[in-house]
Amino acid sequence: MTYQINPTSTETQIIGLVPQCIIDYYSLKCASAEVYLPPGVLKHLKKRGHWDDFIKYYEDIPAMIALPDYVGQNPKEPHTIEIYKVIADHVILPIKLNEADGMFMSSFYILDNGADKIAKRLRTGRLHPYSHFKP
């Protein structure tokens, strides 16, 4: 299935599927691997100054979810995953889990000093290369 994101939508959109190996690794309790984009997140991106980052890469987000470069979990938020993709920039796409509603993209932004942050998070075990999750 092909997912397309409408950045002007006022409706919740399905924007991709998290690979099952990631769901299994983090023991996420979700009814579906689908990732939603609620309209409130678009407002959040504008308010937090991440809108330009989102607009630059929103067409790539479904592929980022399906085939990330790195995946991690914020230790302060155990019901989340963080998807990292290196394109021209190092981007992060946090996904939160709401057991009633499923997984949703909660933010999207370019990491400042992205290469250094990814290297540090790899050293500390906060994230792993995607190949770590595949069977």
N- to C-terminal distance: 22 Å
Approximate helicity band: 25-40%
Mean pLDDT comes to: 94
* Helix and strand composition category: alpha+beta
Number of E strands = 8
Measured on Cα atoms, how large is the radius of gyration?
14 Å
Strand content: 25-35%
The total number of structural domains is: 1
Major β-sheet annotation:
8 strands, mixed
Poorly predicted tracts of residues: none
Shape: globular
Number of helices: 5
Write the H/E string, N to C: EHEHHHEEEEEHE
Describe this structure in words.
The mean pLDDT is 94. The chain contains 5 helices and 8 strands. The protein has 135 residues and is α+β, with helices and mostly antiparallel strands. The longest helix is centred in the last third of the chain and has 11 residues, at 114-124. The two termini are 22 Å apart. A hairpin with a 3-residue loop joins β5 and β6. 29% of the residues lie in helices and 27% in strands. It has helices at 20-25, 39-47, 51-57, 61-66, 114-124; strands at residues 13-17, 34-37, 70-72, 80-86, 90-98, 102-105, 109-110, 127-129. Strands 1, 2, 3, 4, 5, 6, 7 and 8 form an 8-stranded mixed beta sheet that branches. It has one domain.
Could you give the topology of this structure?
Elements: E1 13-17, H1 20-25, E2 34-37, H2 39-47, H3 51-57, H4 61-66, E3 70-72, E4 80-86, E5 90-98, E6 102-105, E7 109-110, H5 114-124, E8 127-129
Brief summary:
29% of the residues lie in helices and 27% in strands. The protein is of the alpha+beta class and 135 residues long. The longest helix has 11 residues, at 114-124.
